[in-house]
Amino acid sequence: MNDSLQGGHESAEHQSSTALSPLTDPGLPPHVYRRADTEPRAAKKAERQVAILFILSAVSTIAFVASFVGIRKDAFIFIPLFGSTQAQQLALGMTLALSLFLIGAGAVHWAKTLMPDHEVIQERHELRSSDEDRQGVIEVFREGAEAAGLGRRSLIKRSLLGSIGLISLTPILLLRDLGPLPGKQLETTNWEAGRRLVTDPDRKPLKASDLQVGAVAHILPEMPEGSELTLNDMVKDPVILVRLRPEDFNLPTDRKDWVHEGIIAFSKICSHMGCAVGLYEQQTHHLLCPCHQSTFDVETGAQVIFGPSARALPQLAITIDSEGYLIAKQGFMEPVGPSFWERSS
Amino acid sequence: MKKILRHRRHPIAHFLVLGIALLAIGFGYTLLSPSNAAVATNARSQAVEEGRQIFLKGCSSCHGINAEGASDVPTLLGVGAASVDFQVGTGRMPLANTGVQAMRKKPVYNAEETAALAAYVASLSPGPAIPNAAQLNYERDGNIAEGGQLFRTNCAMCHNYAGQGGALTQGKYAPSLMGVEVKQIYEAMLTGPQSMPVFGDRAISPQQKLSMIKFLKGIEAEKGQGGFSLGKVGPVTEGLVAWVLGLGLLIGVSVWLGAKSK
């Protein structure tokens, strides 16, 4: 309390010192009279304009009511550039907007042309309360504390402190919900040796002959009887399957047999931020991520050729089973999707 | 008659009867049964020949005399009639200029000439045929919910979830699917024109294709329930209009509020 009082004195001294500075108040520029102030005809005209704005607003409101009552709900009108739209909704929106806007416009025009516009100085009073008021507040507070008897009733004081202390610990318990740590979840998918590739969304197994050169298929792992893909699986497991001519590939030697008759499979989860890399350009053999335009070259094993992604899309080695359906030769050999702290590479 | 029958034991009589019978069967056959087929074959080969003439004049300078293609020009062997019908029917071929992508424009050839070209290219090497009207009855065979699911998985990343089209790399783009003929949508899936991948009948069945078409036609027929759809492309245009038009209007109003009246 004392500190703030002293601070108040200091700032008051500060203010008086600036008032003594050599800069003089330039004052206000001379007042410019409007035409409506000097010419009665101009004032009359402005009055009419304001009235016209208000009357137009009223007309628009009546049109609003009329379109609510009069326009059929199933009537559609065609507006060039915008297409076919429901007539009643359009009319209601336009008329109501117009009537609100015109009231505002009329009021502003009225204030600007006819209401007094002389520059007026409003002096500010001092922000600091008077000494009696300040003393009064302190008095009230002390009386209240005395009436509650906090100093005398120590049982209440201690139990209150105890309950407040305990309640303040609850957020620490809730912090537990930040965990548990993901463990191996970021590094594993449902892909494993022998798992069939099925189409999304109709879960149909594919044979190599089902895909022509230039074809693309969006793939999920076939789940064993009784288990379903969870939402967490759906953000890790999707695979994109592309068929090229076998001679188009320029793959690393250790991955040459990960391809089956020109059919190659990559994780569909972008290695940058985890969007679905779904845009395949058949002529250039490029896969494009729609989020940040990372572009991957299928011929070289989805190496990054453009964009912010730091590494190639993980490739899934595929082959066929005894019935000729496409299956995974093994799981992904690296974690799919974007980088995370514990990622080994 | 009796005079003839008198010679029935003659050594050459049964040869003669046999000869007359064979001739009768032969003439009868040519006169009756295969006459239609002969005419049809004739008409088809005529269309192929007509198509060959158009091809030599209009297409062979790029695609080669035998449609074999060149370094930057695809071969037409095995593309099938469906591909020709799509590319020529939508005016994408013949190419107006060598840009990154052939654009849709007014077709250069009429329906008859397009059919002849398609017949000629199909005669070179087998490929997907033009779907007929019975195969395109999407109202009967399509399922709009299934179509929506398939569309979002297979098409939406390029063509936008409402079929409005979208950008690809280096100036290429996936065109809007609004107002495109059913046959052309079907042919595009079947043949994979330009940047678009192929969705063959064994990966996406004809019925599934019709479901997607039914979904697209459903979107197309949808009317705006008031307000402007702004191309139905989502937050990009909406944001643009709100920031440029909406804020522009607000700035204009505040300038008017602040300006001194004269």
Would you mind describing this structure in some detail?
The complex is a heterodimer of chains A (345) and B (262). With 345 residues, chain A is α+β, with helices and mostly antiparallel strands. Chain A has eight helices and 13 strands. Chain A has helices at residues 2-19, 35-38, 40-70, 87-113, 131-148, 154-167, 170-174, 231-234; strands at residues 76-79, 83-86, 197-199, 216-221, 239-243, 263-267, 279-281, 286-288, 295-297, 303-306, 315-316, 318-320, 326-328. In chain A, the strands form four sheets. Chain A has a five-stranded antiparallel sheet, with no helix packed on it. Chain A has a four-stranded antiparallel sheet with strand order 7-8-9-10, with no helix packed on it. In chain A, α3 (40-70) packs antiparallel against α4. The longest helix of chain A is centred in the N-terminal third of the chain and has 31 residues, at 40-70. The radius of gyration of chain A is 38 Å and the shape is extended. By secondary structure, chain B is mainly alpha-helical. Chain B has helices at residues 2-6, 13-31, 35-58, 60-63, 80-89, 111-124, 138-141, 144-154, 156-159, 182-191, 206-221, 235-258; strands spanning 166-167, 173-174. In chain B, β1 (166-167) and β2 form a beta hairpin. In chain B, α3 (35-58) crosses α6 (111-124) and α5 (80-89) packs across α10 (182-191). The longest helix of chain B is centred in the N-terminal third of the chain and has 24 residues, at 35-58. The model of chain B has no long low-confidence stretch (mean pLDDT 86). The chains are: A alpha+beta (345), B mainly alpha (262). Chain A binds chain B through residues 32, 34-36, 76, 79, 82-86, 88-90, 92-93, 108, 112-113, 117, 199-202, 206-207, 209-218, 242, 276, 278-284, 286, 288, 290, 293, 295, 306, and chain B through 146, 149-150, 153-154, 157-158, 166, 168-169, 172, 192, 194-200, 202-203, 208, 223-230, 256-257, 260-262.
